[in-house]
Prior knowledge:
The chain is α+β, with helices and mostly antiparallel strands. β5 and β6 form a beta hairpin. It contains 19 helices and 14 strands. The strands form four sheets. A six-stranded mixed sheet has the order 1-3-2-4-13-7. Strands 8-12-14 form a three-stranded mixed sheet.
Amino acid sequence: xxxxxxxxxLATVLVSAMVTGCGSKNPSGGNTAETTDNTQTQDAATxxxxxAGGAASxxxxxxxxxxxxxxxxxxxxxxxxxxxxxxxxxxGFRTVLAxxxxxxxxxxxxxxxxxxxxxxxxxxxxxxxxxxxxVFLLQGxxxxxxxxxxxxxxxxxxxxxxxxxxxxxxxxxxxxxxxxKIYGLPALTGGTCAVVVxxxxxWKEAGYDxxxxxxxxxxxxxxxxxxxxxxxxxxxxxxKWQANxxxxxxxxxxxxxxxxTHSLIEKKGAAFTDQPFVEALKFTKDIFASGIxxxxxxxxxxxxxxxxxxSGDAAAYIGGNWDVSYIxxxxxxxxxxxxxxxxxxxxxxxxxxxxxTHNTGLGYAVAINTRVANDADKLAAAVDLAYEITGPAFAxxxxxxxxxxxxxxxxxxxxxxxxxxTQDFYNYQYVDNTPCEIYDSYISSAVxxxxxxxxxxxxxxxxxAEDVAANAQKAYEDNY
Length: 480
């Protein structure tokens, strides 16, 4: 279904590009998600006002497009300075953004920068009040509703006319599309939202040359690690989204397969109450009750849980690419850095729909407030900003510095200059395993709010899998 949708959509895009005679620029232009990035610190609603000064050289080669607009342009995002220290996508975003401001000194770019969790809350509040900023980061789960409400600009033609259109990984537009229209340019980086980070030395001592491929073997290892006084796997679901984004999206795919997910997204008949999804919920409930995770998993954040791994109090950790970036920056020059490896979530018994999958994608897109279109010069500035912070300047920077990918493809990424940790993670994300969808990049936040809350309650032993599925289906029918 997804391929068919894009065949039609991209045919329209290509025809539009030929009519307008747009070409593509030469900078080489990787695929992937930063769907569920979180940070404990924030530039507490920091507002940065910039705009004075003359043009200067840039780090990233941002295009010096001539823009007529000379006024103020608002941008809201969550790439805080603290987050950028351990996150290649955020560093690239901020670096390209700084370069864009350098080459456009007459535009007063006003940034409202929040930590990720706070950003999600604030942007939803602004959308409810019809007061979105000029340019902002859009989650896939909000696309259909905000498009129907007329809050976000249809960017289908804008994307087709982009100087970088031929370099885009077009599959990444799917979460930000509705009714054959595209509402954002996929932004940032990421890749996987579900990876097992494990200490190969500890697992070798437990009798495993690599991380187990089945949960039965993980359960067998639990007694050994308990004797060592450490947890088998660290996990944090204190903010409720983690069980969905970094666990269930992948485990669900193993039971249902991708056709079910696409049918659910496209309202073609799939339901949360379908038995394969209920089986995925049952498995999730049982494995979290098995004792392989830290006992406080439902009370602590993913940031807290990854500290258990970093400190040696857990033999493995399950999280997303943003966690790996932090772990890498923290562990560098330690022995654990050298013994850290990566694996897909093990295969549940009875799951036969897919194997070695991990949910991956770009969870946010640069979107534009519909009202900006009332000022043609301001719209041109907003579009140029969107092009550059998602384009080859960004892609080349993160590929060269972090071995990461974005919307714009970079051919033949040279891994030879990177250490084994980086090469291993690159291969995990982009080469060795099969991607599947991130559930909460689609549908509606109203649905996921219900499911995420119920998941946490279920993992506390207070709801059945059937109850969780029924409640999610009701929310789906009422809100989507």
